[in-house]
Design a protein that fits this description.
The chain has 171 residues and is an alpha+beta fold. The chain has 3 helices and 8 strands. The chain has a 6-stranded antiparallel barrel. The longest helix is centred in the last third of the chain and has 17 residues.
Length: 171
């Protein structure tokens, strides 16, 4: 799942009313000048550092389920060492923010590498994000005016299930 600024992307892709790609629709995301995504990511990182939490529109189906249908994700600032397996972590990748589930942490605690993957895709992310790449953790999904927490016991159980499935299918 790629996090976007108001659904704007450098790619041209059809979207549905929620800002997600949808086959058969002819609406597309307007192209933006090269380098703007980097500026947007930097501005969002600064806002996250200053406020501790940001709400960002999301684009993509790699997480599937509720996250794939959410209008926006609520992201709380988190340092790499504070994230746990099962958390949906937000990390930097090519001037974009990616939100995928952390299914395993390995290496020394001070410089771990995380194995992450989208819930709805088979393979793990390559290259694996490092501790320094982690920006935050998704703590809730927004659906219009309603939000669903990812920190409830039920949500944590659901996350544990995805970690298990992720370890089996990460290949």
């Amino acid at each position: 799942m790629v996090l976007r600024d108001n659904g704007v992307s450098g790619d041209r892709a059809p979207q549905n009313e929620h800002g997600f790609s949808s086959a058969g629709e002819d609406r597309s995301i307007p192209a933006i000048p090269v380098g703007i995504e980097k500026d947007i990511a930097s501005a969002l990182e600064e806002a996250l550092r200053q406020t501790g939490e940001v709400t960002v529109p999301a684009y993509g189906f790699s997480m599937g389920g509720a996250l794939g249908k959410a209008d926006a994700l609520v992201i709380r600032a988190a340092r790499g060492e504070s994230v746990r397996c099962g958390d949906v972590v937000v990390f930097r990748r090519f001037d974009r923010w990616i939100a995928h589930r952390l299914i395993w942490k390995f290496g020394p605690r001070s410089e771990f590498v995380g194995l992450t993957k989208g819930d709805a895709i088979r393979g793990a992310d390559r290259p694996c994000p490092k501790k320094k790449d982690v920006i935050g953790v998704v703590v809730a999904c927004r659906f219009g005016e309603h939000a669903r927490s990812l920190r409830t016991p039920r949500a944590r159980l659901h996350a544990a299930w995805h970690v298990l499935i992720g370890l089996i299918t990460a290949g």
